[in-house]
C-alpha cells in the first residue's frame, strides 16, 4: 500500500460515524501523572465528558485543594481554582455566590474533605450551597506518605498505623458521606466507584446528576467515589481493585443515600 493510499484510507476511516471513542477536549493534552491503576484519571475523564455533554466548558469552575486532587487543574481544560487544604467548599461557596449561573464543583480526597476540611464540608452542606462536591475516598493520605486518614478501615496498615488501625486508640473510620446526607441543605448524596466498566457508567450518571442539580437550586450534590491507592496500599493495581471490593465496599457500600432531599430507605 502506497503512502498516499494509506493517508486516504486513514482519512476515510477517521470519520465521526466510525469513532468508537475519542478523548474529550475538556481534558488537556498533558499526560496523566497519577500512579498506574489509580482511579483519579477515570474520575477526571468522567467529569470532563459530562462538562462537554452539557456544553458547559466555558461555564464550569472547579476547585481543587491539596493532595493528589490538586493535580486536577493540570488535566481539566476548564477554569480551576486551588484552595488551601480542606477549604475547597468555602472557596466554591464564594465562587457560586458571585457567579450563580456557573457550574461549580470541588474535587477532594478523604484526607482533605474528611480531616482538615471537616468544618468547611459540614457547614457548606448545612447551608445548602448550590454546588457539587466530588469526594474521592481511598482510605489513606495518598500524596503525603500514606498516613492514616479518617476513612482508613479498622486493621488497615498505613505509615502512621503500621500494625493496623486500632479502634480503641485511633477511633472508628468516619462515615462522612452518611453524616452529610442527614443535613437539610443537601439535596443529593450517592456513593459510586470507578474500578469496573459497569461502575464507571454508574459513576458518570451520578456526576451528571450532580451537575444538573445545580439548575434546580436546591442545595449540595455530594458524590463519593470509592477508589484505590495502589501505591499507598502497597499493592499492584489489579490486587488493589480486588482489595477495594473485598474490604472498602463492605464498609462503604455503593448506591444512593439521599435523592431529591429525601434519605433512601434501605
Describe this entry's structure for a reader:
The chain is α/β, with parallel strands linked by helices and 266 residues long. The chain has one domain: Rossmann fold (3-Layer(aba) Sandwich). The chain has eleven helices and eight strands. An eight-stranded mixed sheet has the order 2-1-3-4-6-5-7-8, sandwiched between helices. The longest helix is centred in the C-terminal third of the chain and has 16 residues. The chain is globular and about 70 Å long. The mean pLDDT is 93.
List its traits.
266 residues, alpha/beta, Rossmann fold, eight-stranded mixed β-sheet, 11 helices, 38% helix, 17% strand, globular
Quote the beta fraction: 15-25%
Shape type:
globular
Mean pLDDT: 93
How many beta-strand segments? 8
Residue runs with pLDDT of under 50 for 5 or more positions: none
Q: Quickly give the CATH architecture.
A: 3-Layer(aba) Sandwich
SSE order, one letter for each helix or strand: HHEHEHEHHEHHEHEHHEE
Order of strands, main sheet, comes to 2-1-3-4-6-5-7-8
Radius of gyration: 19 Å
Q: Could you describe the largest sheet, including whether it forms a barrel? A: 8 strands, mixed
The CATH topology assignment is Rossmann fold
**Helix content estimate:** 25-40%
* Number of structural domains: 1
Q: What is the rounded distance between the termini?
A: 62 Å
Number of helices: 11
Structural class: alpha/beta
CATH superfamily descriptor:
Thiamin diphosphate (ThDP)-binding fold, Pyr/PP domains
Amino acid at each position: 500500500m502506497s503512502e498516499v493510499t494509506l493517508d486516504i484510507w486513514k482519512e476515510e476511516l477517521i470519520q465521526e460515524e466510525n469513532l468508537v471513542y475519542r478523548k474529550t477536549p475538556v481534558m488537556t493534552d498533558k499526560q496523566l501523572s497519577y500512579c498506574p491503576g489509580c482511579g483519579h484519571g477515570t474520575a477526571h475523564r468522567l467529569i470532563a465528558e459530562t462538562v462537554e455533554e452539557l456544553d458547559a466548558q466555558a461555564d464550569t469552575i472547579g476547585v481543587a485543594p491539596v493532595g493528589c486532587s490538586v493535580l486536577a487543574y493540570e488535566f481539566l481544560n476548564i477554569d480551576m481554582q486551588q484552595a488551601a487544604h480542606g477549604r475547597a467548599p468555602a472557596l466554591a461557596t464564594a465562587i457560586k455566590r458571585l457567579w450563580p449561573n456557573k457550574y461549580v464543583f470541588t474535587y477532594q480526597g478523604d484526607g482533605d474533605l474528611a480531616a482538615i476540611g471537616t468544618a468547611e464540608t459540614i457547614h457548606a452542606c448545612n447551608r445548602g450551597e448550590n454546588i457539587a462536591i466530588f469526594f474521592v475516598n481511598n482510605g489513606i493520605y495518598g500524596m503525603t506518605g500514606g498516613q492514616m486518614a479518617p476513612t482508613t478501615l479498622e486493621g488497615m496498615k498505613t505509615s502512621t498505623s503500621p500494625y493496623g488501625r486500632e479502634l480503641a486508640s485511633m477511633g472508628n473510620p468516619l462515615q462522612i458521606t452518611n453524616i452529610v446526607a442527614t443535613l437539610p441543605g443537601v439535596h443529593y448524596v450517592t456513593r459510586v466507584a470507578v474500578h469496573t466498566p459497569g461502575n464507571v457508567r454508574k459513576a458518570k450518571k451520578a456526576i451528571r446528576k450532580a451537575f444538573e442539580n445545580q439548575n434546580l437550586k436546591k442545595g449540595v450534590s455530594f458524590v463519593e467515589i470509592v477508589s484505590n491507592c495502589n501505591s499507598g496500599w502497597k499493592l499492584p493495581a489489579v490486587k488493589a481493585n480486588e482489595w477495594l471490593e473485598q474490604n472498602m465496599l463492605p464498609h462503604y457500600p455503593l448506591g444512593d443515600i439521599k435523592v431529591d432531599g429525601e434519605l433512601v430507605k434501605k
